[in-house]
Specification:
Helix content is 13%, strand content 36%. The protein has 6 helices and 30 strands. The active site is at 106, 327.
């Protein structure tokens, strides 16, 4: 998760939007936004400092976890730039009567949860956040601690084995890859969701975490919970794709966008209105079984301009400890040591003459004064997928804004044999469609507006 604080990113503020009718004609949609700054008297580099710290923790745990283990809904999706957290956010409606909560959208998290009070456990109120009053919802159904669901099925989601009485709810202590955590009890609840045709529908029996306590960075301080989109039997993705068709999509607005700028997270068919005119849609294989619960892709190389970089093939092979995933919860892009050195060396050659700076305390190697720098002087960086598909991100996605007049190469070195992670800054301004049923990933350039 899980959470990646302050800076250029932050995924998500989603606003439910209407619609429901036939499964063939509608899709689920949520607004999605990105936001980033609420710290008092921040340093010029505070966002990238926080992002680096949280991303590094997240990547370490991702690597450890990997080694050991027809219409639809429409939800708003936007940057967390204005909230001081490096995530994207959306809004969901939970319970009966339905209450609205702002949540982090995370493709690396399996559990959906909200700040919650149940049977006297949990916060009465939280500053700038909402608390779900479970006992006020007629559709709230706790999961019992003596059930097979608790003792076996939810063991992967950190269910706690202690069960003093048959009436005791199934408890969890959910740990995120960035060091944050949430504690509470599992339940089944009703979600009210907007559809792409303008109507509204309800989904009953969704697994949700009623979190009485959570600890983490800016994302937890500014949001009400997490929307878990990882590939898991108990994630929001599993339920939504089963109902609305086996795919979901999102378009991440620029990570420096303000909260009034958003696009959508959609489960079901992708509306053509979110793409740019005549987009260059490309498709590659989505490997759903090799690095669960993450969304893995087969990258075979990286080029800069017309030059294919000399990167050992084992960097991309899962059996050698590598492999590559897309992760909405990581801001920067992590590359295994050999790939990282090849990429930054290749880009440096085209930044000769641009004054380099090493900001004090900033744990990122390559930053430059670029007030008068023309992006077009930097060659196109391209990721090459098995089968010939190519992903060419915008230059501002790999020479990223760190402070006024200063930009940095948006890559982090992952030491030794490690998983490569394509973060959300690299993904911005593209429409991404995850087709779970067909095991494909499609993408195309988009304004996301």
């Amino acid at each position: 998760m899980k959470t990646t604080t302050t800076m250029l990113l932050c995924l998500i503020t989603m606003l439910l939007i209407a619609s429901a009718h036939s499964k063939e004609e509608t899709a689920m949609r949520l607004d999605m936004k990105h936001r980033d700054s609420l710290s008092p008297n921040p340093s010029p580099y505070h966002r990238i400092e926080d992002i680096m710290g949280m991303d590094q923790k997240r990547h370490n745990v991702i690597s450890q976890k990997i080694k050991t283990t027809k219409g639809g809904v429409k939800m708003s999706l936007g940057s967390g730039f204005d909230y001081g957290a490096a995530q994207y956010f959306s809004e969901i409606m939970v319970g009966t009567p339905a209450k609205r909560f702002r949540v982090v959208v995370d493709t690396g998290s399996e559990l959906t949860w909200v700040n919650c009070r149940f049977h006297g456990q949990g916060p009465e109120k939280l500053e700038n956040r909402h608390v779900f009053r479970a006992e006020n919802s007629s559709s709230f159904r706790k999961v019992g601690c003596m059930t097979k669901t608790c003792s076996e099925d939810l063991a992967k989601l950190f269910s706690i084995a202690i069960c003093p009485t048959p009436r005791t709810p199934c408890a969890y202590d959910y740990r995120y890859v960035d060091g944050s955590s949430a504690q509470g009890v599992f339940a089944k609840e009703t979600f009210t969701l907007g559809l792409t045709n303008g109507s509204v529908t309800s989904i009953r029996g969704l697994l949700i975490g009623c979190s009485s306590n959570s600890e983490g960075g800016a994302s937890f301080r500014e949001t009400d919970g997490i929307l878990g989109l990882a590939l898991s039997d108990y994630s929001f993705t599993a339920k939504a794709t089963n109902i609305f068709g086996g795919k979901f999509s999102y378009c991440l607005v620029d990570h420096t966008s303000h909260k009034n700028v958003s696009n959508y997270l959609i489960f079901g068919s992708t509306p053509s209105s979110t793409t740019t005119k005549a987009p260059a849609r490309r498709t590659t294989r989505l490997d759903l079984s090799i690095l669960p619960p993450f969304y893995a892709v087969n990258i075979v190389g990286i080029s800069i301009g017309e030059e294919m970089l000399n990167i050992p093939p084992q960097v991309w092979g899962v059996k050698k400890g590598g492999g590559t995933i897309l992760d909405s919860g990581s801001s920067l892009t992590f590359l295994a040591e050999a790939a990282y050195k090849a990429v930054v060396t290749g880009l440096q050659r085209h930044l000769v003459g641009v004054k380099r700076i090493k900001p004090e305390g900033l744990p990122i190697e390559f930053c430059y004064y670029t007030t008068k720098f023309d992006d077009r002087k930097l060659p196109q960086l391209t990721f090459h997928f098995k089968g010939g598909t190519r992903f060419a991100p915008y230059r501002r996605s790999y020479l990223i804004n760190a402070a006024p007049g200063i930009r940095c190469l948006g890559f982090v070195e992952a030491k030794g044999e490690a998983t490569n992670v394509i973060g959300n800054i690299m993904q911005q301004n593209h429409l991404w469609e995850f087709d779970i049923a067909a095991s494909t990933l499609s993408f195309s350039p988009s304004t996301c507006l």
